[in-house]
Amino acid sequence: MYKVLLVEDERMIREGLKTLIEKGTSGFAVMAEAENGKDALHYLRTEMPDLIVTDIRMREVDGLALIGKIREMYEELPIVIISGYDDFHYAQKAVKYKVSDYLLKPIDRLELVSTLAKIRQGLDRKKKVREEENTVDGSHREERQIIRKVKAFIHDHLDGDLRLQTLAECVHLNPVYLSQLFKTETGENVSDYITQVRMNRAKQLLHETSLKVYDIARLVGYQSAKHFMLVFKKEVGMTPGSYRDLVSSKDL
């Protein structure tokens, strides 16, 4: 059972979310609740949950400040934002802090269930990787750790400089060697992986927010909206606008 820290200042909403998480999904249990970011940080000093679900607007320490502090403590801890605000500023911060999902109030039960199912799959994969690492030799374990660090850097800096040289510097390797190692360990090129991650994040933002296409382009690392749309159509098979219309129609 994966442990959830639930952070929400409105008691009725908090109780409703707890019920949705525990009865509407499998594999998660709300082990702790906090009314604000300050209480959540106090809990995190002694305990580490598997998932944090937090509101974005709260008294004392708000959700964005809380997430910033969490990332200083735990780089890869899954976080789901619950918000009544759908704008570029919040979405930009969510991308920067590598938030797992950004759900708008009122919460759609099926959307929450889908989000938690994806997070559980990720947690299960990490658990399996840890188990496998106990059976591999030291040198191979180190290579896997390097690739995981590179992937984490890519996810954390989608809107930044992701040139091979930059990635190599973050793991203190020669760019050519890193490129070869990445291909050997993952079966794909670094550039292809970056494009895949950017397109997946773009699809998520197109589905879950009403942000303009040019804002989404910036959030996933494209300064030119035209270039972003060309890449999106090549990778996804349709324009960003058509994709948004398609997923919106499926939600009806």
UniProtKB/TrEMBL annotation:
Molecular function GO terms recorded: DNA-binding transcription factor activity; sequence-specific DNA binding
Pfam families per the UniProt record, alphabetical: HTH_18, Response_reg
Listed SUPFAM superfamilies: CheY-like (SSF52172), Homeodomain-like (SSF46689)
Residue ranges constituting the Response regulatory domain according to the UniProt record: 3-120
Keyword field: Cytoplasm, DNA-binding, Phosphoprotein, Transcription, Transcription regulation, Two-component regulatory system
Compartments reported by the entry: Cytoplasm
Name this protein carries in UniProt: DNA-binding response regulator
Keyword check for Cytoplasm: yes
SMART domains, sorted: HTH_ARAC, REC
GO biological process: phosphorelay signal transduction system
Domain HTH araC/xylS-type: 148-246
Keyword Cytoplasm appears in the UniProt entry: yes
GO CC annotation terms, alphabetical: cytoplasm
Residues with 4-aspartylphosphate modification: D55
Top-rank lineage group of the source organism: Bacteria
